[in-house]
Structure formats: C-alpha cells, structure tokens
Amino acid sequence: MQLAPADSPVHNMRIMNVVYRNIDRADSAVIDALGVFGVATVHEAQGRTGLLGPMLRAIYTGARIAGSAVTVSLPPADNWMIHVAVEQCRAGDILVVAPTSASDAGYFGDLLACSLKARGVRGLVIDAGVRDVRDLTAMGFPVWAKAVHAQGTVKETLGSVNVPVVCGSGHVNPGDVIIADDDGVCVVARRDAAQVLKDAEAREAKETKVRERLRAGELGLDIYAMREKLAQRGLRYLDQPGED
Amino acid sequence: MQLAPADSPVHNMRIMNVVYRNIDRADSAVIDALGVFGVATVHEAQGRTGLLGPMLRAIYTGARIAGSAVTVSLPPADNWMIHVAVEQCRAGDILVVAPTSASDAGYFGDLLACSLKARGVRGLVIDAGVRDVRDLTAMGFPVWAKAVHAQGTVKETLGSVNVPVVCGSGHVNPGDVIIADDDGVCVVARRDAAQVLKDAEAREAKETKVRERLRAGELGLDIYAMREKLAQRGLRYLDQPGED
Amino acid sequence: MQLAPADSPVHNMRIMNVVYRNIDRADSAVIDALGVFGVATVHEAQGRTGLLGPMLRAIYTGARIAGSAVTVSLPPADNWMIHVAVEQCRAGDILVVAPTSASDAGYFGDLLACSLKARGVRGLVIDAGVRDVRDLTAMGFPVWAKAVHAQGTVKETLGSVNVPVVCGSGHVNPGDVIIADDDGVCVVARRDAAQVLKDAEAREAKETKVRERLRAGELGLDIYAMREKLAQRGLRYLDQPGED
Amino acid sequence: MQLAPADSPVHNMRIMNVVYRNIDRADSAVIDALGVFGVATVHEAQGRTGLLGPMLRAIYTGARIAGSAVTVSLPPADNWMIHVAVEQCRAGDILVVAPTSASDAGYFGDLLACSLKARGVRGLVIDAGVRDVRDLTAMGFPVWAKAVHAQGTVKETLGSVNVPVVCGSGHVNPGDVIIADDDGVCVVARRDAAQVLKDAEAREAKETKVRERLRAGELGLDIYAMREKLAQRGLRYLDQPGED
Amino acid sequence: MQLAPADSPVHNMRIMNVVYRNIDRADSAVIDALGVFGVATVHEAQGRTGLLGPMLRAIYTGARIAGSAVTVSLPPADNWMIHVAVEQCRAGDILVVAPTSASDAGYFGDLLACSLKARGVRGLVIDAGVRDVRDLTAMGFPVWAKAVHAQGTVKETLGSVNVPVVCGSGHVNPGDVIIADDDGVCVVARRDAAQVLKDAEAREAKETKVRERLRAGELGLDIYAMREKLAQRGLRYLDQPGED
Amino acid sequence: MQLAPADSPVHNMRIMNVVYRNIDRADSAVIDALGVFGVATVHEAQGRTGLLGPMLRAIYTGARIAGSAVTVSLPPADNWMIHVAVEQCRAGDILVVAPTSASDAGYFGDLLACSLKARGVRGLVIDAGVRDVRDLTAMGFPVWAKAVHAQGTVKETLGSVNVPVVCGSGHVNPGDVIIADDDGVCVVARRDAAQVLKDAEAREAKETKVRERLRAGELGLDIYAMREKLAQRGLRYLDQPGED
User: Fold this and answer.
1) Contact with chain F for residue B157, Cβ under 8 A
2) ipTM of the complex
3) Across the strands, what pairs with F70?
4) The whole model's pTM is what?
5) Which of A33, A167, C83, C91 holds its CA 20 to 30 A away from the CA of C106?
C-alpha cells in the first residue's frame, strides 16, 4: 500500500504510552459530504489509494458513515486503552483500533458502544474482534472488524491514543477522514479531504451519465472507446469451431 | 476435483487473448428447471461433482439463479476483459470471471452490473473481489465472490473470453450451466444438463417422501435401514457409567 | 484454551466406535436461563473460559439458543454418525459435531434438520460445512458452522457419539451446556452450570447499572476508577504540537 | 477430533490460576520407545487418534522427540506462565503451551530454551509464535509452533500449569506422552502408553514386510488383496479412446 | 486461471469411478529437457500459463523433476485410489492427486513412495497432506503438497484415475507434462510440449545475455529501453525536500 | 501496529507516480551494528515496536542482514517499478516492495537479483511472491516474502519509489533501517537508529548474564524475582489429587 505523505508533525524520537489530546480534524461539512459518496467512489477519487484491507467487515449491512479518526494502538487482547480513548472522542469521530500484534479477541461490546454513542461517535473500525453484535446492531452502532469473537480481554498494559497506526494493512493518522460502508473502509488524509471531495463529485457526475447509457443498452466498449486499443494490443475474435 | 470430461472441441495449440463469439448453450427450459432445484440437489444429482469451492459466497442472501456460463480469463487486478465479455452475453447468461493469479481486487461494481442487467444477464460468479455491494443488492443483481473489496483495477492487459477456466477451484467451460444460491455455485456440463435435470427430479421426489417421514418422527436409521450395516462394521452401544 | 477439569468419568483405555446412550444433562431451567444471557455474558461469568473459536459462525443472524450437548466424533466428509446421533437426542439438546481431521464438506442439510427438529433439538454446532442454508433459515433451525458448502458426504466409516470432542478449537463433553448466538458458541461444564448462572446474573446486574451511567455520559475511566492506575503505569497526556 | 476418555481426576468446579505440582508421568522406557517409532506410526497404532493439527510445524527439520507433557494455559501475548512452568519440568518432559485465544506473538526464545535445556526438557510444542529460531536451531532445542514471530510478550496476567489444554486443535492432559517429529505432533494418553507401544511394534513389524515386497515391485493392490473389493464397489477399467 | 483448450477426447456423458489405462504421453526427451529449465522459465515460455497455486510446496528443497501426469481424483481423507493408480504408472511419470473436496489428511507416506519408486515414478503432486516426510526426504522421493499431516486415511470410496482434475487451483489432464521444483509446479499440455521447449530455449538464451549485462552493472531500465515509456506514462523524478 | 512518529517531511498533497531520488540514510556503522544483534533483540530494544508481520518468511535459513530501505509502492502483479527502483539503490540498501492490493504473484527472480547484487544491495523484503528461489539461494541473495510463486507479472502500470509504504502490515519509510533474519523483519526509524543501537547493546549485555545463570540451572522465577508478584495476583500451587 502506498501512503499519502505523512500529514502529522515531525518528531525525532519514539514516543510510547502517550495520549495526544488536541488533534486537528477536517471540516465537518466536507466529512459529511464524503460520507454520502461512500467507500468505492472516494477510493477512486483519490487515485485508488487509502483503502483498508477486505478483512475488515461490517458487522451488519447498510451502514454508511464518515468521521474523524481517533486512533488507538494497544496490546493484543488488552482493551484498556479503548477506555482511555473514549475521553478523546468528540461527536462526529470514528474510533480506529489496532493491536500491536495480531489478535481476534473481543475488545469491544455493548458497554463501550453505549459510552461512545453518548459522545456522538459514529462507529468503530478495529483490526481485531468485537462481541455483543446483536446489541450493537439493535442500537445502530456500526462496526468494521476482523472477527466476531466474544473472547474477553484484560486491562493490564498501556498503549497510545492518537498516534499513527497500521489497521487492516492500511495506514491511519489521527484526524484522517474515515469513510466506511458495506464495501469496507477508506482513509482520506485530513489535508486532502476538500480536494478529494471535489474529485469525488466530478467522478460521480461522470458516472451518472455513463450509468444511464449503460442502462439504455450501450456498451462500455463503445462509451469508453476501447475497441481500437484492444485490437492494437492483439485481441482477436474467433468463432468457436462446430462440434457436431 | 474430478472433472466431467471436456465438453469443448479439441485444439492442438495454446490460444490466448481471444474472444470466442458463438458458444453453444443448453436448452433454456432445462436451465430454468435446474435453477428451481438449487445447488445442493443438482450437485448430488450429478454424482457429487461440479461444485465450486466455499470461498465463493453470495453478497446477499436469498438469490437462486441458473444460466449459461460466459467465461472470462483475465489478469490479477485488471478488469478490462469484463468490458469485452459484456458484449458476448445474452439474456439468461451468467458471467464467470477467473484471474490468472490470485487477486482480491474489486473488479466489478454497479456500472458493470447496470450494463449486464440491461442485457438480461442473471448474475456474476467471480474468483476475486467486487464492490458497490449496497447498489448491487438494491438492484437485485446477485454476485458470488471471494471478497468484497473496493480496490480499483486497471485496464492494461488482455485476457480471453469463452475459454475454459478454473474458478473457485472448479473447472468451468463456456456454455456450462451455472446454478447458484445461498449454498454456493454448481456447474453442470452443457451436454449433461438434460440428464442431470432428470436425476434431480428423481432425487427430489424421493427426498420429499423421506422428509415427511422424518418430520413425523421416524429415524433415518430406520428409513435407510442402516442399523445392520452399522453393527456389522462394529458400532457398539454402551451406557455411560454412573458418576456419583 | 484452558479446559475446565474433565466432568466425565475416568476410563483407562481408548474406546472408539461407540455410542453412549444415557448421558447426564444439566437442569433444564438452568440451561434456559443461561440462554437468556447469551454467549458474551456467560463466557465472562465463568472467568473468560469455554468459548469456541470464531471460525464457527451462525448461518443466519438473530438466533440465541442453549441446550445440552450431544457430541459426535466422525471422519472427514462422512456424515453417517450424524444419523446415529439423532436417535440419542432429546428435546432441548444441541448437536455438536467434530470431524477427526479438517473438512469443509456439507455434512448436514434440510433432511437431517427436519429429523432433529421433530425431536425437539434446538440447533447444531459443527466444525465443518453445512448446506441447504436457505431451507434451514426458513424452518428456523439455527446452525453454527465453519463453512457453507454443498459438497456431499459418504456413509462408510464409523465414529462415536457422546464422547469428548474438540470442536472449533474448544473442548466439549457430552452433556455440557451449549450457549450459541450471533457472537459464537460457549460451553459450560454440566456441573458448573448452576454456579455460572448465578455469576452471570450478578454480572448482568452490575453491567445494567454501568450501562445507564455510560449512556448518561459518564466515562469508564471514572466509573472504573482507572485514572490513578494508568498514571502509575506511566501513561502521559500530551498536546499535539502545532503544524502551521 | 475424538478424544480418548479423560485420564485426569474428576473435579466439580472450575479451577483457574493454579499450578499442579505432582503430575503422573508414563514409564520413561515406554516414552523413549514410542519416540523411536515417530508420529505417523504411533498415530496409526492408536487408531488414528491423538494427532495435533498441521499448523504446528517444526522450526527445523530432523528432530524426533518423545516426552511427558507439562501443560501451560496462558493469555494471548503474555508469557509469564512459561516462567512458572519451567520449575515444574523434569528431565524428559516436553512443554506444551496453549493461549486462551489465538495469538502469533513470540512467547519463547533462546533464554527460556537455555533454562529448559538446563533441566533436561526435550522440546516445546506451542500453539503460538516463537523467536530466536537461529539460536534454538544452533543449540538443538526443537520447537513445534504455529508461527515464527519476534513480537515480544508481556508478563501481566496469570494462567495455569498442568491443566488440560487444547493445543493445535487437539486435547492434551498433563502427563500425556508427546511424540513430535517432521510430521507434526501426536499425543498418547498416559495410561494407554504401554498398550500403544505394543500396537506400534506390531504395526511396524507388519509394515517392514510390506515395504520389502513393495520395493521388489509387488503392488499394494495385490499385497492387500484389494482388486475384488474394488470391482464389487463398481470400479471399471477403460481404454482411453483414440484421438486422431 | 485460463486453461489451454482441452487436450483430451470429447465425451458426452459424465464418467465416474473409472480407470483409464492407456494414456498418451509426451516425448520423453522433450519432457527431460523441459525439466532442465524448471518451473519459472517454462511458465514464462508458455505465455505465463499452466502454473499451479503456491499452496503446493516442496517437502524438501533442491528437487527439480519433470514427468507425465498420471492423475487421481479421490474422496477427502480416502487414499484407496492411490493404490489403484500405482499400477497405471510407468517410469518417468509423476502422480497428481486431487481430492473432490478440501482435505489436509495424510494420504501418502513411505510405503506408497517405495512402491512408486520401484516403478520409476519421479514424484508426487498432491492437493492435500502427506506424512513420513523424514523418510521421503531420506529416499529422495520429492513431493509437492498442501500440508504435512500424519492424519491417517480410509479405503472405502472409489474415485477415478487418468481423468482431468483441478489440483492446486490449476487444471491437469492425464499425460500433461508436469515440471516441479522449489518454485512450485507447472503444467504443459502434452501436445504443446515440443513447442514450449523451443520457446523455453529461446527465452533462456535471451536471459543469459541479459543476466551478464546486469551482472556487469547495466540497468534493466536501459537494457529494456524503459525510460521513454515510463516518462510517457507520467513518471516523475523528484528530490526529497530537505528536512533540517 | 503503533508507528513511530513519521520521520519524513510534511507534504500537503497526495503525490503519486513519483521517484524520490535523494533519500537520507542512517550511519552505515550503526546499521551494520544493528544487523549483528538481529531482529528479536532490536525489536525489544526499541520497545517492542517495528516488527513486520510473520507472513514475511525468509526463502532460505541463516541469512541476517541490515540495510537502508529503498521503498517501492506498485500495482498487484506488475513489477515495472522494481526496475525503476534498482537505479535508486546503493551499496548497503535493502529493497522493500509493497503492492497496493494483495498479490502473491512472482514479482522478483534471478535477473533482478543479479542487478541488485551488482549494485551492492543486501536483500529484498516483499509483501508478495518471488521465484527462482533455487538461484537466489545459490547466489546468496536473501529474500523475505509472503509467497514463493513463479506467476509472471506485467510491466504496464506506474507506482512510486521512496514513498512511505505498508509492507507485511508494518509501516516503512524510505531510509529506515531494515533488519532481517530467520525471525522475520524489523524496521528502525532512521533518526532512532543510534539510540536503538545503544539500547540493544544494553539489553544484550543484560541478557548475556541472565543466560549464564539460566544455563547454570537458576530459574527465571528467581532471577526476575517473580514469585511475590505471582502470589499477589493469586497464583496457587496445588498437588494433583491421587487417582488410584
């Protein structure tokens, strides 16, 4: 995965077990507008970058959200730092949780969802397991996770909040815009958000016209003028020889 | 997986980057009748053959389709040949797409679905990823895929249409009958279709009677007369020793 | 996975190809009450033990059952012993099926479900594949399985019924209480069931109060008095340095 | 996986965070003799039972060991209990380590291997990750593990020593005989060890004769007298029709 | 995976439980010459087709073989048909074994290897498990398999010999040329073998020259004249901005 | 995975299809010294961070290298940018290659290795497949890869060189120090390299003393003074009740 160049300040030492309190977020109107377009369109609009891996699946279908990433780096099977992160969340945020080594334990359930919902948080993206999916579904708190697994976690070891993380094989900086729907999860760098929104609008406008022509029976081969290039590359059309 | 002997003509050279235009298809009444029985029954009726692997999952539940395979062999993360294949599809067909090496990229989305739907194509089976599943679900275009992943693809490298492919660890010839439902995907060789239909009808008739006896409380052990064979093989019945 | 010490009698020889007929079951009122709490709560109430692995997924959402385990150890891709096991099932039981080596074949479908339902069996947990999921869903017979796969099985080789098995990387004794819902499957040793129920009730009572405080906007950091311990462990709060 | 009936005493409550000190072990001459036969022969000799799953791989080829299981149940990514378990090990033992939920962290490296080697422990079986494989190979301390991964672990949460565990999808009681070689890991119940040894000797004697006949060019079809049974089941021999 | 058009005769019915005795094989000098080039070169020489999937791994390093495929389609965890297939093998053949549904059981060990070796068979390709790898390595009988697993199999259910199979997600016809080395397994259609050999020789000659230029420090960018095309596509060279 | 704060300059726009020419590298003496310690020690010395995932495996055992990362972001199954990247490599570098979506194709073989070797490059880390492993082993060019797969790639689509990438679920900046051995791959931020080296030296000195005490038979329980803390957390020692 290629990364957009880092949007965060330059440090010259490793910093661990720290909570960054005052992250910058993108403009909320831009965030909400990106959410309307959804994952596939935004991903294309920013040059086919920013997608997290397909192992992150929605626990129920139909949700489409966008928000600002509050990130959590924590140990495997230890959810202590999620409690710490809740306090850093504002209305409109999405919590992004990544263990430091692979875990499918159930870090998150209905109690934490109640707490996040009370703060206006829009959803959770976690490179691990969640539980209470029946309750999460009933309360309409969407989650994209690697596993559904009830396995309980401990609260023993620290991690960090609002540091860059790798989640679902993708890179997320705190304050990045997260878009998530049934297709998965896409990340837009905070400073790129306005430009990506414009590109998404342009793409959608173009696609709307193509969609109508396709529905009317025109072929993509003709709409996109592909036939000549295909022939140049050597594509041949043959009749299947008769059999009988 | 054992394959039904090849239903396609004999060639004596490798042929690549070619589109076969006039494939033979099975009788449409037979195809539709096979679709009523569904995957499990058809698979059993043809001697437990023809099933594609369980990694191919329906993107939404409840669909059950049957149709003639238009096959596509294409490169990883390059969907150019799907555009080529659309033109070869007729009403009643099912598109079967197989990359030449493993890919979970999102080859297919709502625009291509609009195009296929306009031609009367019944669905897609793809050994890779798809996207826009929310739109595909809304328009009722069923897809069996290995992944849901928005990752965009390129249009740079040729492949072939209507050649034999391996899809989901199974073998599909162009013109084969594809049956797909919540249980997965099953392939019936074109020339076998009528016979398999008869076998499916016979099986279903027999199962209907068994089903009623089971519902009434009879045991499979008795209906299938298994007790003697089990005893001959050495099955013993014991009482669990008391504990307390 | 740590196991609760074995609840079954001590033997001094390997016993194979045997059906134990008279297993002990837990009190049915206790079983039903455990089912109300569901997997996550029961798992926590018994000290975070007893969970089967997340590869066992419900074939449809919304079911929550509890019952007594009738266990089946059988060969890969051979479902003969399921027919044998049906006879050992009573109303309120849950069938737990484990192949002796990995298999994703479709051991179980609508006919066996009809038979089990006629006997009052509440569901199936199987470390392998099932089929006819459309019919199983329509008849409301819940299944937790590793795969949906129509691949037919044979009836050639014996196994055992009501012996200890490893299913979904967890250990199940015959007569154990099985709880299953959208979060997965949890096992409670028969003799522990009453105590675990009490612990689950106590846990739920406590969680209900916490849930209300979280909904009202209190933080887990404060409710659980975590701040001091976090500081002792060395958690630091920093402001993100300005960028512009 | 079917389990041999439990070899351990009956308890009536869940016991956690406990170290059992005085486990019974099988006769050391029997253990050593089983080790000579290796995994495949012992597995067959006890009726094709006792094998752990193929995800447990030797970190270097050529080792073949047998010993008494000292078992450890511990949290994901926390290796504290291995330090506790070392003290319970004697010469001739094999440490068997199973996390309570899936982890690929590196629980074990050269320091722990030095400690175990000093006590005469013969090897490690772990359903998780190890590191320092270069050092472990150099010192000739064999390990069967799910992953090679350097990821460090913490020492925060208790577990238990010498309780029954599920490791590699198989069940291991403390004091069971472990056999491990390039084919994987096999478990023999302590009380069965002497009988399994006799069966292994008998099997090996028979196989030695068959091996010589096969080397001389005789066919298994004839040695095992399979032809009649194959014909009865319906196997047909055909000539491939000419093509040209 | 795209398939070379079928090299086998046309049939009009499904044929199961059959052994085809007299398959055609490619010229032995051609086969041996293909083996010298190895998997990667042959795969490229035939247009990047014919490769089986990377899940098929050599059980020991350093072997490189080529031979004629004798194919076996058999049930999961049942190795009866391998005994049947041995009789159909000649010197120079390679056995290719594919279960009808996924299995990691240990179908093959030292006894069968002795028998095949006595007949001059060069190796085994199996989409399942093998055992006795220590013995197989010692006797120099190379195997490409999906798993090393000692799990025993039964001899209860028929299959077929010398029918087309899907193995490792690739298609193999009886009599195809199999090339296998540390890179995996490649299949060449029998009738294409002579042409592919010529193409491999041409490719190797060209690569030898390129290799020398690369060793001398020339860049592929220049040898292959890529710079202009890269610039046309829009590649830009930038200096990393200074940091300090 | 938590990331060390970004070591690269701040940009305010997405930049694609670009080659950065003049990356900064760490001091070569520091790099070489880190290589002596190896992956596990360096990973621990920098606070258990920086490890790439265990899916990246060495193609042969025994190599241990350290060098400066030249990073490549490229499309799935398209290795064009590797040719571009070669020119940016100097003696002492390690090439780090990451596709933008998952691919197991064989991006890299003996020709590219010859070219890199001619420039003094020390090895390759690639989140995809490689081939010609027999040749790579013979020439002593070490590779850490996700798959060995001969599948050929195309040269059609651009990517970038010396941009941040996610490789093996870890984050790599151009110029980072890469350490790789049989335990996997570890990344040290360029600016941290000198400090991490000091910490590694301190850790190794301490471990050397512990190693000697363990070899002499002392227990980690005593060396690390764990007994009191274990008792405080509630660990109990029990005797296994007699059975006979």
Assistant:
1) yes
2) 0.92
3) F95
4) 0.94
5) C91
